[in-house]
Amino acid sequence: MATTPPPPTPFGIGGTKAFNNTSLPSPDKMKLQISDDQIRDSLEGAQLKLQAERGTDLTIFSPRASAMGHHEGDAAVSEIWTTISNDMIHRAVSLYPDNFVGVGQLPQAPGVDPGNCIPELERMVNELGFIGCNLNPDPSGGYWTDPPMFDKWWYPVYEKMCELDVPAMIHVTRSCNPNFHFTGSHYICADTTVFMQLVESDLFNDFPELKFIIPHGGGAVPYHWGRYRGLAQAMDKMLDDHVMNNVYFDTCVYHQPGIDLLTKVIPIKNILFASEMVGAVRGIDPETGFNFDDTKRYIDSSAALSDADKQAIFEDNTRRVFSRM
Amino acid sequence: MATTPPPPTPFGIGGTKAFNNTSLPSPDKMKLQISDDQIRDSLEGAQLKLQAERGTDLTIFSPRASAMGHHEGDAAVSEIWTTISNDMIHRAVSLYPDNFVGVGQLPQAPGVDPGNCIPELERMVNELGFIGCNLNPDPSGGYWTDPPMFDKWWYPVYEKMCELDVPAMIHVTRSCNPNFHFTGSHYICADTTVFMQLVESDLFNDFPELKFIIPHGGGAVPYHWGRYRGLAQAMDKMLDDHVMNNVYFDTCVYHQPGIDLLTKVIPIKNILFASEMVGAVRGIDPETGFNFDDTKRYIDSSAALSDADKQAIFEDNTRRVFSRM
Question: Do A48 and A79 contact (CB within 8 A), yes or no?
Fold first, then answer.
């Protein structure tokens, strides 16, 4: 890994998407029907091509968030699908060990004790060599019927994460609530919501080693940094001490002014380079002539960031947070 | 109204807050127990004092959003409370006609046809002289169980708004879902969610005269303006034509970098000066020595805004949107 490493943001490959089609045979049978060549074909034309074109060298390869689908079926379905998805990531990573390192999803289901995730969390780290997990704060898919992330409901997962020394990317999956467009609303709102849950609670007092990555540049948080500082202050808390030793924002913000705001108001130590690749916004920005999600350009172009800042964002922070890498 | 006019953002007065205490007698009795002097006392020490101190001259006086409480009780309760709340605003505005102009809430309730709002909407405009309304996109208080705002479910309200020529401030009330802190999450997420509902739908084709104000600087939208431009583009839509003839963002963003981003990426014609006053974030920012929510300072201090831009944001845009003013 050189100067421009891993997007710790979920994305997927063509192969894994196919499982979401309910007209197909059961996932257990499908597992056998994707060859290594098919995986290579899928990756060579997408993630690997974009790595080369955009100048990144190592990608943290995680499930396509929108396909985690924790609200589809029940806990048993979630467990089967999670196993298949994580196994597929493991195969991709094994085929390209210099390009990819794995992060997995958990077999969450709405209303189901997250303790059910422990065996798969152990398996993905200890057997598959993954360096982190995705954790969905709303397994209901847009109805938010499970407890907030500061609730003891979630503590079994946090205990295991700390024991294994892995961070969690806090990321919802697709929304089944018609109010929430998944990439335009549900994702960004979940980011914002979880951050505020962390502000209003004392979770990191109980888990000082716990590490959360909030994607999409922290949702609305940096734009409303004054609001969050003010709300925290009214609770006799300071964001720096209270959450910013444990929370990291990625750089999935798809225009220069947004990245400039992020890097201006959020401490550099809390920013991890990322791009949803291939992800939510795939077009070319007519204002720049480059892809909206080619986030490396925004960091490279930032006049306010020093070389040391860029090195921290591109690599050093990520290595610190993903300490098993 | 001189150069620094109306915050089109909800806030309330001490008097209206008291109704939210369920240990008090029924609202109908309470209505009689607040004297004009009590109203004056409440306002002189808060809104009027802050107007004078901060240099604004006319406030669009609307219900405290968190106290609209559409998820409390049922539609009948909502109707009683709405009438009392709007009557109280009318009394405040009548006592200080040079300082205030009224905007009212609607008797929404989760699962109830919004057509029930028509009589109160007509009353507040035609009888009370109000110039706009608050419209809650999630009467459930954080479970989002009603249809999205592009659904025909809402059309009776939109038809009446257009007929009366009044805009709506799109604002949720307090959350009863423990996942959503009201001012730190529910408000900002609702802003973001409704904007995306407008992007993905063609609501303004059906209602080209409809005007929505999205508070808190548009939620997460300006920070993720590249994402929204990209998502719209992928749907063969351009934000400028598709939504920005009908949607306005206020300036309730409580730090200079946020306001600078807002005014940089969002067309000036779509920005309306506002401050939640007295509202969500009441403390003094230790980084500036001034109140977080003293938003006039951020606009005044903006190096990028011309005098004409500031005049548009402070007054001209607001007069255009609130055309009955």
Answer: no
Strand-pair category, B133-135 with A271-272 = unpaired
Structural domain harbouring B125: 2-321
Picking from A138, A184, A257, the nearest residue to B199 by CB comes out as A184
Q: Could you confirm whether A163 is annotated as catalytic?
A: no
Tokens of A152: 């003891």
What token pair was written down for A226?
């004054």
For B143, which of A143, A225, A286 is closest by C-beta distance? A143
Q: Is some CB atom of chain A closer than 8 A to the CB atom of B304?
A: no
Q: How much is the ipTM here?
A: 0.92
DSSP reduced 3-state for A251: coil
Q: What are phi and psi for residue B279, nearest 5 degrees?
A: -140, -135
Q: What is the band of B1 on the pLDDT scale with cuts at 50, 70, 90?
A: very low
Chain A contact for B223, CB < 8 A?
yes
This prediction has a pTM of 0.92
C-alpha separations of A240 from A168, B48, B220, B289 in Å: 20, 35, 22, 19
From the CA of A138, how many Å to the nearest CA of chain B? Answer: 9
Other C-beta atoms closer than 10 Å to the C-beta of A220 total 35
Cβ-based neighbours of B37, under 8 Å, separated by 6 or more: none
Rounded Cα distance, B44 and B53, in Å:
12
Please name the amino acid found at residue B224.
H
Residues of B in Cβ contact (< 8 Å) with A215: none
* Count of domains observed in chain B: 1
Q: Is the model more confident about B13 or about A84?
A: A84
DSSP letter at B235? Answer: T
Best B152, B175, B223 member to test A by mutation, with max A CBs in 10 Å, is B223
Residue B259 has pLDDT above 80, yes or no: yes
Mean pLDDT over A56-79 rounds to: 95
**Is B258 in contact with A226 (Cβ distance < 8 A)?**
yes
Q: A-B interface: how many C-beta pairs under 8 angstroms? A: 205
Contact call for residues A12 and A63 (beta carbons, < 8 A): yes
- Which is nearest to B280 in space by CA: A218, A232, A199, A188? A232
Q: Which two tokens stand for residue B37?
A: 């002097």
d(C-alpha B281, C-alpha B216), whole Å: 12
Nearest to residue B196, comparing CAs of B157, B225, B153? B225
Q: What is the CATH number of the domain that holds B80?
A: 3.20.20.140
| Phi-psi domain of B180 (left: phi exceeds 0; alpha: psi -120 through 50; beta: other) | beta
The token pair that represents A12 in the structure block: 């997927």
CA A23: distance to chain centroid? 28
